[in-house]
Amino acid sequence: MAAGIAAGPAGQVRPLHGVTIRLPGVYRAQADTALLASAMHREGIGPGTDVLDLCTGSGALALCAARLGARVTAVDISRRAVASARLNAALARLPVSVHRGDLLSLFPGRRFDMLVSNPPYVPAPSGTVPRRGAGRAWDAGFDGRILIDRICDLAPSALRPGGVLLLVHSELSRPEETVRRLSRAGLNTSVSARTALPFGPVTRARLPWLRARGLVPSGADQEELVIVRARKE
């Protein structure tokens, strides 16, 4: 989907700039990335804000935070994603520290002012996350929540007091469960933005399976993307 899709009541999404390198198999920044970038602009990020971008992909969100003046760390488990993000940061001449690792495993005990993530969240017939191939960028198990649930569990201890998690995903992977898990962990949680858009090619190809599982109503031709915002008081 085009990155400039309208974001509904929360306002217009911002175009993404500076992401020119994307090795094969690395997620292309799309409407979900742009929706999250717009949410980041509304958070007052600036010099001194310590931001961690989980599942950075091509580095689009990390570059967005760096342009706002933040100290930015980015992580991805994919070697190609890490290489892409490093190249994009170098081309943009932005100081982003990019690491290869599994979510927060490289940063034990470290705290951040903001966590942002556009993780894989598309429900898939396989119950596991692919270890290779393009599907690694979007497949997230039967309910699309393999990575989302782990982020929900890890985020509270990785945020400083007053810190914020911004997490984007589809209604197909149950935002209400994300809100419930983060609220139960003590974070002040809500859906802060949403937008509807036509199904992409991956979801369209899976519609019979998604409908059989009750995840997509018969006749539906679009999905809603949401930003879940959680603040550590």
Question: What labels would you give this structure?
Answer:
233 residues, alpha/beta, Rossmann fold, 7-stranded mixed sheet, globular
How would you portray this structure in words?
The chain is an alpha/beta fold and 233 residues long. The chain has a single domain (8-231), classed as Vaccinia Virus protein VP39 (Rossmann fold, 3-Layer(aba) Sandwich). 29% of the residues lie in helices and 24% in strands. It contains seven helices and seven strands. The protein has helices at 31-41, 60-67, 79-92, 146-158, 175-184, 201-205, 207-212, and strands spanning 50-54, 71-76, 96-100, 112-117, 159-170, 188-198, 222-231. Strands 3-2-1-4-5-7-6 form a seven-stranded mixed beta sheet. Helix 1 packs parallel to helix 2 (60-67). The longest helix has 14 residues, at 79-92. It is globular. The termini are far apart. The model is unreliable at 1-13 (pLDDT under 50).
Spell out the blueprint of helices and strands.
Elements: H1 31-41, E1 50-54, H2 60-67, E2 71-76, H3 79-92, E3 96-100, E4 112-117, H4 146-158, E5 159-170, H5 175-184, E6 188-198, H6 201-205, H7 207-212, E7 222-231
- Provide the low-confidence segments as ranges: 1-13
Number of beta strands: 7
Q: Please provide the ordered H/E string of secondary-structure elements.
A: HEHEHEEHEHEHHE
| Mean pLDDT over all positions | 90
Number of helices: 7
**Strand line-up across the major sheet:** 3-2-1-4-5-7-6
Rg measurement, Å: 16 Å
